[in-house]
Amino acid sequence: MRHVQRAIKNFFRHGIGRSTRHILIGICCAAMLGFLASCSPWSGDKDDRRTTVEFWTMQLQPQYTDYFTGVISQFESENPTLRINWVDVPWSGMESKILTAVAAKTAPDVVNLNPNFATQLASKGAWLDLSDRIPKPIQMQYLPKIWDASTIHGKAFGIPWYLTTRIAIYNQALLQQSGFSKPPTTFTDLMQMAPIIKAKTGKYAFFTTLAPMDSGEVLESMVQRGVQLIDRSGRAAFNTPLGRSVFQDWVDLYQKNLIPKEVLTEGYRYGLDLYQRGETAIVATSPEFLKTLTKNAPTIASQSFVTSQITGETGKRNVAVMNLVIPKDTPRPDAAVNFALFVANPTNQLTFAKAANVLPSTQSGLQDPHFTQIPTSSTELDRARLISATQLQSAEVLIPAMKDGKRLQKVIYENLQASMLGQKPIDRALQDAERAWNEGG
């Protein structure tokens, strides 16, 4: 536990770790040394006797290579017995790669995942339980709802790292052409504006994917509108009059051609493309998208403004969490926890959040002027950052950590699609989704 104890001590002192010494016990037998060389976590350099900690991130190279090179160099200089092997994995390949690695017991020591996917493996006992390894005072450095997002059955399986909250970006020219002076703030507003925007401009109000294995925005919007997805026993709870009303809204939008037909087949990124082409009036996304918009569609960008995330009757707003998890089977848990705490400490979090235009998950980080004040010569990106940070105080992970969360999305989306296509009455679609979830099929 010495690595962790040292990390904890220095976390309070200045948010970083100090050097530790890893004692290697060897046997001076040539055969045994050969065996250790083939199996140990040492680096390939025969003169480098440091313990290697493997760290996986999701699609952060090459944009943040310099940042991570600096963080890793600092950590290694303060922990001379440890060496970090950083592997960046494409976003689209992470799930299959980590599933394969966990099954084969070749997983990295620290990996960057979101809670929804990490929960699938947490429910199978794949991750190290951090509840007792990280003292309560350090846990309390993080926003309470964010820490809770990486717990299941009372056990913490992840360390919060960085966050994003959706904002709404709207094309003011299209809204004005439709006769609107301000953007919608609720889903009710959005539903009422959709037919007018289509009639006046020939464009769609918005795009939200219903592809079963893509974004969970529709599921989150159900929660925002007050639908309870599952009860405390884990059984379906969405087959209610309110759940039926939400299904009816989507059926009406689709059958009246008020949303693109591609909502059934295309994913979240297709919606971003539609907005950049000027085919939709509103897009729900992160502030970082403004940079892409300015580069790819400068005319649309010049007509675009930001506003708060659209919500429902509950007033709830979504937050997406990226965390750091540690496989249970790692042979070096203390070193892994030490490094994960270093990456996610307040100082390093804040630096990364500023560089990546995301939000820190620590309470102190959100108090930095970067997230509380707008520069005198502000841009839409500056305003988006402030809106995003302000929302975070009351935001939460709308789909809580649960076993088989993706399956819940799949059974709801597939049955909702069937109603939208006229293949099932809404009542039957809700019943079939309820049955499929409760029966585990």
Describe the structure.
The protein is of the alpha+beta class and 441 residues long. It has two domains: 2-161 and 330-379, Periplasmic binding protein-like II (D-Maltodextrin-Binding Protein, domain 2); 167-318 and 404-439, D-Maltodextrin-Binding Protein, domain 2. Helix content is 46%, strand content 12%. The protein has a six-stranded mixed β-sheet. Strands 8-7-9 form a three-stranded antiparallel β-sheet. A two-stranded antiparallel ribbon has the order 4-5. Strand 1, helix 3 and strand 2 (82-89) form a beta-alpha-beta unit. The chain starts with a helix and ends with a helix. Mean pLDDT is 89; it is low at 8-44.
Quaternary structure classification: single chain
CATH fold-level name of the largest domain:
D-Maltodextrin-Binding Protein, domain 2
- CATH C-level name of the largest domain: Alpha Beta
Which whole number gives the mean pLDDT? Answer: 89
Biggest sheet architecture? 6 strands, mixed
Strand content bin: 5-15%
Tell me the total number of β-strands: 11
**How many structural domains can be distinguished in the coordinates?**
2
**For the CA atoms, what is the radius of gyration?**
24 Å
The CATH superfamily title of the largest domain: Periplasmic binding protein-like II
Strand order in the largest sheet: 2-1-3-10-6-11
The helix fraction, in percent, is: 40-55%
The general outline is: globular
What is the annotated CATH architecture of the largest domain? 3-Layer(aba) Sandwich
Name the structural class: alpha+beta
Cα distance, first to last residue?
43 Å
Spans of at least 5 consecutive residues with low confidence: 8-44
**What count of helical segments does DSSP give?**
21
